[in-house]
Every structure is written in C-alpha cells, then in structure tokens.
Design a protein that fits this description.
about 325 residues; six-stranded mixed sheet; five-stranded antiparallel sheet
C-alpha cells in the first residue's frame, strides 16, 4: 500500500460518522488531505485553495467512477476544498496510485493557481484511463508494442540510468510523437514479428524528423512469438517493478504509466501465454538521407502522412548500442 492508502485505512479505524481528513504531509507547499467518509465508505483526496480563485470543474462531470466537487474549507478563512473521491470500491488500488502520483506532480509547485491547473489536467487524463479499465485488455498488436518499449526501458535501467528520469523519458504511453524523449534527444521504438524485408510503420511525417532535436534514434526489435518460449509481458513488467520498487515515487509512476497504456492487474491472465523471444535488435541514427518523409518536404495541403520503411535498406545508418546510451547518458545526468 502507498501513503494515501495507509492514511485512508487509519481514518477508517477512527469509526467516525463525519467526513474525516488528514494532512498528507506537512512538507508540501499546499494543504493536501486524504479524506474518508464512513457512511458511504468513500475515499479521496482534497486540495485546499483560496476561494478567490475561479475553478471550473464542469468538464469533469463525466469523469467515470470518480466524483469531483468543491466545498468550503472550514479549516481556513476564505478557502475552498477541491474534493476528488472514488465511487467504485473495486478500483481502490488504481485510485490510490493515481492520487499518489497527482500529489507528487504538484508537490514542488508553490503557486495555488498552477497547482489547481495541474490537478485539473491530471483529472482530464483519468477520463480515458477509467474507460480503458472496463475494456477486455490489450490487443495482440498493443501487447507487442508495449513489450518493445519495456524491453528498451529495462535496458536503460540496467545501465544504471537514474530511475525517475528514465521513467519520465518514457512518453509513448502519453501518445507522444516518439516513445522516449528527454531534452535534446528522442528515440522511437518499433517491434516486429515478421522475418525478412521487415517494414516499419511510421505514423506521421514528424516521427522521423530530427528537426529541433540534437539526436534522433530508431530502435528496431525483431521478435518471435510463441505460447511458452521466451518472456511474457507480465514477466518483463515484474522484472522492471523489482528493479525500481525501492524508489517509491518512481514505482508509482511506472504503475500509472502502465494503466494509462491499458495494462491492468485484472487482465494479467490474458497475457500469460504470449511469449516473446528476441531475434534481432538494432539502433539507427536518423540523419541525412535516411529513408523517411519529413514535414518540410511536404507540399501545401498534404498532412497526416503514414508510410513504411524497409529496414534492410537502412544498414548504413546503424549505430552501436553503446554510442546511443553514452550520448543519452550525457543528457540524463546533466
């Protein structure tokens, strides 16, 4: 259990009929509480802020399984509470992780207006997350893509990169343009299961465009799939979890990113029988005449470009793995 979950349990033991709240931490710049109401048995968090701030939560009316509302904060003069509570008890573990990460996201922000803005942005992201919880798990293609990104994420961690920085670099779950990006570099991951003349699908004219970047790399992981020979999605997630579980904030961030991509504990049984075995892996530096379509090359009126790259034709752009990680390491530790 994380800190918010522990505080909820403590509040439940009080057996009080009224709404209870307890400060999450006195070290934060804002007053953020864990709350518990015995009668309806709901848990949540509450953020105190000045009543002078105008806060619009109308867009959160359709937030599934979570209620968001505002009420007066009687602990302070001219203050309100932005209350976020869970209405579905079976989602408590997920909700606890999300609350923990929301608190972490605003912990270093001192301006109340910016805190509330950040909280509302995070709640917007929760909409899609709770919708995906009710799905039937990841498709075969989604599993394959996630495995490839995790395979590279594990490489970063095993090379001693700072854990939280590494998880922050993994932006593919946020539907970003590339799968990994940090400061002046970016890296796109493509995972395939076919044999010869492998085609890599490129989703836009910007994905392999190094404009505005110091370095852009492409990582191609070729795998075989089977019912039992190799590594499952569940196994690689367990291994990464063990690598980072001593870092509480990073561990929670990893779990939230998995949920954002649609991986939930309830679906683990779906992924037990699909295993991946590495056939080949290569890094490419995107530069010069690497075969791609760049945004600056498009005629007016053309957009949303999708195309394929025949990776066998790109051997002159191969780059050693150590060179990639040495370059990235400079940015990660700067």
């Amino acid at each position: 259990m994380n800190r918010v979950h522990i505080i909820w349990n403590d509040l439940a033991k009080a057996n009080s009929p009224s709404l209870l709240k307890k400060l999450y931490s006195a070290d934060l710049s804002q007053y953020i509480y864990c709350i518990y109401e015995m009668h309806e048995k709901y848990c949540g968090i509450a953020i105190s802020y000045s009543a002078k701030l105008e806060v619009n939560i109308s867009q959160l009316n359709r937030l599934k399984d979570v209620s968001v509302y505002i009420q007066s904060d009687t602990s302070f003069e001219d203050s309100n509470l932005l209350i976020i509570k869970l209405s579905k008890s079976e989602l408590l573990e997920i909700f606890a992780i999300l609350c923990e990460n929301l608190i972490s996201a605003v912990s270093s922000i001192t301006d109340q207006k910016r805190v509330i803005k950040k909280v509302l942005e995070q709640l917007e992201k929760w909409k899609a997350l709770f919708d995906s919880f009710n799905s039937n798990g990841l498709s075969a293609a989604e599993q394959q893509g996630l495995y490839g990104e995790l395979f590279l994420l594990r490489k970063f961690l095993n090379r001693g990169f700072p854990h939280h920085t590494t998880l922050s670099c993994w932006v593919g779950v946020d539907r970003a343009l590339r799968d990994f990006q940090y400061r002046g570099w970016a890296l796109e991951v493509k995972t395939t299961v076919t044999n010869n003349h492998q085609r890599l699908s490129i989703s836009s004219e910007r994905q392999l465009d190094e404009n505005l970047l110091d370095y852009l790399y492409l990582y191609h992981l070729s795998v075989e799939t089977s019912d039992g020979n190799g590594e499952s999605l569940n196994q690689i997630i367990t291994e990464i979890s063990e690598l980072i579980n001593s870092d509480f904030v990073t561990f929670n961030l990893f779990n939230q990113k998995l949920m954002e991509v649609g991986y939930f504990e309830k679906d683990k049984g779906i992924y037990n029988n699909r295993h991946y075995k590495t056939r080949n892996e290569n890094f490419y530096k995107i530069e010069g005449d690497f075969p791609r379509i760049k945004e600056s090359e498009l005629r007016d009126g053309i957009g949303d470009v999708k195309y394929s790259v025949i990776i066998d034709n790109c051997n002159e752009y191969l780059i050693p793995e150590n060179t990639v990680f040495n370059t990235v390491n400079i940015y990660a530790r700067d």
